[in-house]
Design brief:
Largest sheet: 7 strands, mixed
Structural class: alpha+beta
Strand order of the largest sheet: 1-2-3-6-7-9-8
CATH architecture: 3-Layer(aba) Sandwich
CATH class: Alpha Beta
Distance between the termini: 31 Å
Number of helices: 6
CATH topology: Aminopeptidase
Radius of gyration: 15 Å
Length: 183
């Protein structure tokens, strides 16, 4: 039985890092990348630990094993991951409901991943529903960006309720910034 909760200790955070590593593009085939999706950013334990406070990362657990995770990344961490700095700049300038997002209460979902054995079983949606339960009292929106090549992730985010608010291209990829409005 899958339990959704916030990450509470270094063992759980280490399991997030291990699941993340398995799903980096450098560790999967091109075929798997297209069919199953991938994660883009590699975090270290120190950063993941600091990001886990004051709001914990959301995890799906099956016994002692992590089946999936969704990382909470507050605006305060914009400078911590250089590859995400421009994403935060873009998000802050975007408008939603006539207001700049930088002037609203939003946070970034820093990364979501479901272990292979748990895919297509509702874990992705379960992670986001638990995230909404924990975070909606404090935030109006959750925002993230998805590589346009990651079609599985784009479809899954749409099913949960995200809408694309901006597309752009950088030196590495084509991106979609998506937002889930909890208002």
């Amino acid at each position: 039985m899958i339990e959704y909760k916030t990450a509470e200790n270094s063992i759980e955070l280490q399991q997030i890092i291990e699941l993340q590593a398995i799903n980096l593009p450098s560790n999967i085939s091109d075929e798997e990348l297209k069919q199953q999706g991938f994660v883009t950013v590699k975090h270290d334990l120190d950063l993941l630990t600091r990001m886990n406070s004051p709001y914990g990362h959301i995890i799906a657990k099956d016994g002692d094993k992590i089946a999936g995770y969704a990382l909470v990344m507050l605006k305060d961490f914009a400078d911590e991951v250089p590859v995400l700095f421009t994403m935060f700049e873009r998000i802050n300038l975007l408008q939603h409901k006539g207001e700049k997002l930088g002037n609203t209460q939003y946070f970034v979902m820093g990364q979501v991943c479901v272990a292979k054995d748990y895919r297509s079983q509702g874990v992705f949606a379960g992670l986001y529903q638990h995230m909404k339960k924990c975070m909606s009292p404090h935030f109006d929106y959750i925002v993230t960006q998805i590589s346009s090549r990651n079609t599985r992730s784009k479809r899954a985010h749409e099913k949960v309720g995200f809408e694309t608010i901006k597309t752009y291209k950088d030196d590495h990829d084509d991106w979609e910034i998506v937002l889930w409005d909890w208002g």
